[in-house]
């Protein structure tokens, strides 16, 4: 598939993810940048919440019922917020003077548009380089589960996070945060696009659209709407390799990527609601708090670890609010009550944090570097073990931190310092217990912690870029006045123009646009370097089928695509999931016995796994095959996607006519399809 062919499909995916949430933004009385940033998170919140609620009450989860739910919830929110609308009226469509639109195109709004185009465009370009083709398949361990989960929801309508974990295979339903899978499955149901193409399109939406808009909103809450800040934010949002690029392919952690992309707008709303924003706006707080709760729900049902991180940052924000109350000489009892609340909040968060840690058996990632090396990786986050340090990012981030420390937005420096410390801890600490206490929420995985740092580093880097641009502009304006002394003197004496040359340049939109363009180009060249090239090349190795890939080769994909010619709709195929055989379900809707490593239905399925080749001599094999209607075996050789994962495939190593298996199709040397004939089926 070419990128030109994919544009309509990707655009359709974006529409399904934007329009439902956009309805809720009108109901919540949101507007402007916040409305744009909230559309997709609210869509995901609606999909995920409806999946859980409908699953509990027995309502089918499909496009019709979900659309009705959005309309009902939107009407309810609109009704609840009628008093807010009366206190904060907005012009109706018929009252808008379209002739005045040109007047609304201020330098601030133009800068926002330019910032979004720069940030989203750069991210989309890098993602295109990583994927190489729009229908590329993720060659990672978790791809089996994510693709098959989307197909499972599409086929069954069982979308609840409370039951998705077993994919309908295990006897007991288990919890798995399914917000990403709900969104992908709804898109698949509406459009009938393949799961892996939807996953790629959603990566573009979350990384380029949601992340960029969220970063812009957070930056404007921290520093205001100065054009130099917004354009700098758009640029640097696309310049941190660790996010959104690393998590666009690592794992592949599709849900984690989505949850992190939601965090900037979430922190921005909390900043506004808690009174920490740069500019005090006469806005109702109720819509902000309602929107915050909805985004927290979407984030938690995507990846709960991101909510825990948000709560930790909120604790820093609340500490800032409390300290301002102390400095403002508020009543002693209010200050004391706030202190008690902070202590209780920290205690409750600690209990939640510890209970949310992954098991120590699952938290197997080890340290890989010294503390000083880990600090360098945290200041210029690329990926753990990267051989390049993006010095431009390091410089503007540190400069921005020093600038922001002198402002009322210094709490974001504290959040950044905490994230840096947590990464140094997970990447280098030899105190395994302390390390697990703090980073077990992320499986002690350095990659996941490193991807969190840009959340706080982007605003700081934007502030650093803005400081450099402002300093350079000031020096240039001074130079202009120096090289035109006669005109400057005349203007001062009132004998000439009322403004100096420097003042005319400062107020010229043409000069501002030209200067901004030059600054963006210089910034791009300074911030995009070998580190970004390295992460792109790393990402390319995790996608596609143009070479020998760890999960699915071109030969294996070709054989899977022919499965419907041999396998009936009600028949089941067995194969080692770590070799890519499980993707038969997502690609051709052919039912597989094991949709993901570890999902073994029962004892009979275990018998098939461990003793299949003993079919002529083991009397338990044929009844097990009959129970699960397994009629075929898909063999993709011994290459596995994850060398550290384990699947005992010894029971199907030797298959042939002598023990009841006939080779009926083959592609290349390793991709083989056997029919089971030894049971007289």
Automatic annotation (TrEMBL):
This protein's record includes keyword Glycosyltransferase? no
The record, for Pfam families, names:
DUF6541
Q: Which UniProt keywords apply?
A: Membrane, Transmembrane, Transmembrane helix
Give me the segments passing through the membrane.
6-28, 40-59, 65-84, 105-124, 196-219, 231-251, 257-277, 284-301, 307-325, 332-353, 388-405, 412-430, 450-473, 510-527
Keyword hit for Transmembrane helix? yes
Give the protein's recorded name. Uncharacterized protein
Organism placement in taxonomy? Bacteria, Bacillati, Actinomycetota, Actinomycetes, Micrococcales
């Amino acid at each position: 598939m070419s990128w030109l062919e994919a544009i309509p499909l990707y655009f359709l995916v974006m529409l399904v993810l934007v329009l439902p949430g956009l309805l809720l933004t009108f109901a919540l009385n949101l507007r402007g940048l916040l409305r744009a940033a909230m559309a997709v998170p609210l869509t995901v919140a609606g999909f995920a919440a409806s999946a859980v609620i409908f699953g509990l009450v027995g309502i089918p989860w499909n496009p019709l019922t979900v659309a009705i739910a959005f309309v009902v919830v939107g009407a309810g929110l609109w009704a609840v917020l009628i008093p807010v609308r009366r206190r904060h009226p907005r012009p109706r469509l018929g009252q808008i003077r379209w002739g005045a639109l040109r007047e609304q195109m201020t330098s601030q709004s133009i800068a926002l548009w330019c910032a979004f185009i720069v940030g989203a465009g750069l991210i989309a370009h890098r993602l295109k380089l990583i994927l190489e083709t729009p229908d590329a398949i993720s060659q990672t361990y978790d791809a089996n589960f994510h693709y098959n989960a989307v197909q499972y929801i599409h086929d069954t309508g069982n979308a609840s996070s409370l039951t998705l974990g077993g994919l309908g295979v295990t006897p007991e339903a288990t919890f798995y945060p399914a917000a990403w899978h709900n969104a992908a499955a709804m898109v698949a149901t509406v459009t009938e696009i393949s799961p892996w193409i939807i996953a790629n399109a959603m990566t573009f939406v979350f990384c380029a659209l949601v992340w960029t808009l969220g970063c812009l909103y957070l930056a404007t809450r921290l520093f205001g709407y100065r054009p130099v800040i917004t354009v700098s934010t758009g640029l640097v949002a696309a310049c941190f390799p660790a996010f959104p690029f690393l998590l666009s392919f690592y794992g592949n952690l599709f849900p984690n990527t989505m949850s992190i992309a939601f965090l900037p707008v979430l922190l921005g709303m909390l900043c506004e609601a808690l009174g920490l924003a740069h500019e005090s706006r006469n806005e109702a707080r109720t819509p902000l708090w309602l929107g915050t709760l909805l985004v927290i729900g979407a984030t938690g049902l995507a990846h709960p670890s991101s909510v825990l991180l948000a709560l930790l940052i909120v604790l820093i924000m609340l500490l800032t609010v409390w300290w301002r109350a102390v400095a403002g000489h508020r009543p002693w009892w209010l200050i004391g009550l706030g202190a008690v609340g902070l202590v209780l909040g920290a205690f409750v968060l600690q209990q939640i944090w510890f209970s949310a840690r992954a098991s120590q058996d699952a938290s197997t990632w080890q340290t890989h570097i010294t503390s000083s090396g880990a600090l360098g990786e945290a200041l210029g986050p690329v990926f753990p073990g990267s051989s390049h340090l993006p010095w431009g990012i390091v410089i503007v981030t540190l400069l921005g931190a020093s600038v922001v420390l002198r402002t009322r937005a210094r709490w974001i420096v504290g959040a950044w310092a905490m994230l840096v410390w947590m990464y140094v801890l997970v990447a280098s600490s030899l105190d395994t217990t302390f390390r697990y206490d703090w980073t077990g929420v992320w499986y002690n995985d350095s990659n996941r912690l490193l991807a969190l740092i840009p959340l706080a580093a982007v605003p700081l880097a934007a502030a650093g870029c803005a400081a450099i641009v402002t300093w350079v502009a000031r020096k240039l304006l001074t130079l202009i006045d120096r090289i035109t002394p006669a005109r400057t003197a005349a203007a001062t004496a009132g004998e000439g123009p009322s403004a100096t040359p420097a003042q005319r340049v400062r107020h010229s939109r043409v000069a501002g646009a030209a200067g901004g363009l030059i600054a963006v180009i210089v910034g791009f060249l300074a911030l995009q370097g070998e580190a970004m090239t390295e992460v792109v090349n790393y990402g390319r190795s995790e996608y596609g089928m143009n070479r020998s890939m760890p999960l699915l080769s071109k030969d294996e994909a070709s054989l899977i695509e022919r499965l419907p010619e041999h396998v009936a709709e009600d028949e089941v195929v067995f194969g080692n999931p770590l070799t890519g055989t499980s993707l038969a379900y997502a690609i051709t809707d052919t039912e597989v016995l094991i949709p993901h490593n570890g999902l073994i239905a029962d004892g009979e399925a275990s018998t098939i796994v461990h003793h299949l080749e003993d079919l002529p001599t083991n009397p338990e094999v044929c009844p097990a095959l009959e129970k699960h209607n397994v009629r075929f075996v898909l063999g993709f050789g011994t290459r596995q996607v994850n060398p550290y994962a384990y699947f005992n495939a010894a029971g199907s190593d030797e298959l042939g006519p002598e023990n009841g298996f006939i080779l009926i199709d083959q592609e290349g040397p390793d991709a083989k399809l056997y029919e089971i004939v030894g049971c007289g089926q």
